[in-house]
TrEMBL record:
Species of the source: Emiliania huxleyi
SUPFAM superfamilies: Phosphoglycerate mutase-like
InterPro entries: His_Pase_superF_clade-1, His_PPase_superfam
Name this polypeptide is given: Phosphoglycerate mutase
Amino acid sequence: RLRARYILLRPGETTFEAAGMVDSNPINKQAALRGLTEQGREQVRAAAEALAARGVTSPVIFYDNGARASQTADILANSLSVPRRDVEPEFRWLEARGLGALDGTDLQAATEYLHRIDAADVESAAEEAEDGTPSDSVNDVFGRMRNTIAKIETSYGGGDFVIIGGDAAVLSVFAAAACGTDLRDHGRFTLPPG
């Protein structure tokens, strides 16, 4: 049983999402051009208002240290007046799912492909990329999320935690696991931006 309450928030719309392209190479994740669009910033501000309306006013924020999640965490923290000590970057475990050779391809087609291979086997992954972009399976993502939750559960006595993953897949895998759903069906938990 988990002691903390987890609120999953994916980054607002990113420049690559707006262009309809896959962006999963962690080497580039801190590049400013991979950050939020203006619409993405508005989505995060709206999410902050929704959280405040539900009484979430002083959470600890854990986020992937890439540009999109960092910008999301900054906007959320500023909107909710969360002190900097409660805004914690995670350097690997919340990183976007590596999509290997799919990086830089059409986002919609890649998403459909991933839903098919994930539904077949949680060990399936996209084809390896020549440029070194990792290719993660659902099980790889689950292992990283489990490490994040274990860290929080052993380091804190409870409270509200906003988890900002590098992409929707990281959060949908966690949501499926938390709800006791077969991880092959994690796609049904995909969150919209912000």
